[in-house]
Amino acid sequence: MRWSVSSNDGGLPKTIGWWLFAIALFLVLVVALQTYIGWIVFGVFLYHVARPVARRLQHHGVSPGLSALLSFGLIMLPFMAVLGVFIVLLLAELAAIEATDVEALLERLFPRLAIETLPTSEDELYAFVEVLRSDPTLATLIPLVSGFVGTFTVQAFNVLITFVFAFFLVRDERRIDSWFRSTIVERESNVYAYLKAVDRGLASVYFGYTLTIIVISIVAVIIYSVLNLLAPPGLAIPHAILLGFATGLISVIPLIGRNLLYGSIFLYLTVVAYQTNLRYVWFPIVFYIVMGGIFDNVIRTYVRPSLSGRLFHTGFVMFAYLLGPAIFGWYGIFLGPFIMVVTIQFLRVQLPKMHPH
Questions:
Q1: Per-residue buried b or exposed e for 292-301, using 16+ beta carbons within 10 Å of the residue's own CB
Q2: Contacts of 87 (CB under 8 A, 6+ apart)
Q3: How many beta carbons lie within 10 A of that of residue 10, not counting itself?
Q4: Fewest 10 Å CB contacts: which of 109, 115, 233, 287?
Q5: Range list of β-strands (E), 108-200
Q6: Residues 287/269, Cβ–Cβ less than 8 Å
Q7: What does the alpha-carbon distance between residue 142 and residue 126 come to, in Å, rounded to a whole number?
Q8: What CA–CA distance (Å, rounded) separates 113 from 301?
Q9: Cβ atoms of residues 214 and 83 within 8 Å
Q10: 15-73: pLDDT as tens digits
Q11: Are 323 and 215 in contact (CB under 8 A)?
Q12: Rounded to the nearest 10 degrees, what angle do helices 138-171 and 37-59 cross at?
């Protein structure tokens, strides 16, 4: 490998010294960037989602800079805007279930957010809205928002830096790869083989599973909401946004995952229709035809083949997505799969080479 030293430079002792320095430097970087680890992993996710689009544009003669700009400006930004609205609605619905403590929920998902500056209780929200209603002037608005405007400014800056980071990764990926191979490791080295395996794994998980979960969740919420507009009185699908997210998340379980959820909702709606009015039984049937027939067929025929990610056992993927947010907060949905990929690819690629035969 290119970073090894010759015996004329001091041999093994000097190599160990440089490795110790590299470890110390790595630890310094980890401590310095630990506050932004979530945004860094989120940027890696954006890179792997935007990369296939940019590469396809480059294949048709578009320059790397313009292809990266188009992939982010025309696809990623609108998609993230829709995702942001979906997350806000999801948090609102979670907070509405059994009087969930909004403040505790936000502190769990966003541990570094200045929660005390946000109006989270019912009394604070009521007072906020009432003051704006009675005196909707700029002089009234400034004192109200001054407490939490700084919080959102910081988060907006983090989002901007994340998009810039992902943009440069997409635009300069070939230069970075060329520099890495010519300066740090050789193409034939074990390190390069392992990193390429990790990159393939992240592309499979992020573009395959994560994007599939997000797309299915958003589309399922839209379908549930439209069905609720057609539902007979008292027969609406409960917590449509939460069930939409569950539809996307349970999609990591092949074949039976979504059907279990559809079946549960179908049984619930059928029982309610039986208790309310037997003439309403058409709605559960329509629901299952739309979700279990049409929607599920579209996922299997078009979504899955386009966003295929099947390098890893679904059990590992499922636990990575379930435990990631529970352990790390909001960015756990990206960091959990990242840790899974790094670990499993090490066991696949590198560990057999280290084990003596």
A1: beebbeebee
A2: none
A3: 13
A4: 233
A5: none
A6: yes
A7: 17
A8: 41
A9: yes
A10: 787 888 888 998 888 888 888 888 889 899 899 888 988 999 988 888 988 999 998 88
A11: no
A12: 60
d(CA 191, CA 4) in angstroms, rounded, equals 13
Report the SS3 class of residue 63. Answer: coil
- Greatest CA separation found in the chain? 90
Residue 120 dihedral angles phi and psi, to the nearest 5°: -110, -30
Q: What is 261-293 written as a DSSP string?
A: HHHHHHHHHHHHHHHH-GGGGHHHHHHHIIIII
Which element (helix H / strand E) includes 133? helix 122-134
Angle, alpha carbons 247-252-258 (nearest 5°): 40
Q: What separation in angstroms does the CA of 106 have from each of 116, 120, 193, 279, 337?
A: 11, 9, 40, 43, 22
Alpha carbon 20 to its chain centroid, in Å, reads 35
Integer Cα distance of 145 and 134 in angstroms: 16
Q: Which residue has the tokens 């002089």?
A: 139
pTM: 0.70
Positive or negative: CA dihedral 228, 229, 233, 239: positive
Dump pLDDT digits (tens) for 146-204: 555 556 677 778 888 888 999 999 999 889 888 888 887 777 788 888 888 999 999 88
- The number of CA neighbours under 13 Å toward the Cβ of 75 is 17
The full set of domain ranges for the chain reads 37-186, 188-357
Backbone torsion region of residue 99, taken as left when φ is above 0, otherwise alpha when ψ lies between -120 and 50, otherwise beta: left
Pick the closest to residue 109 from 121, 91, 126 (CA basis).
91
The C-alpha atoms of residue 54 and residue 227 are separated, in whole angstroms, by 36
Residue 192: exposed, middle, or buried by beta-carbon count in 10 A (0-12, 13-18, 19+)? Answer: middle
The C-alpha atoms of residue 125 and residue 103 are separated, in whole angstroms, by 12
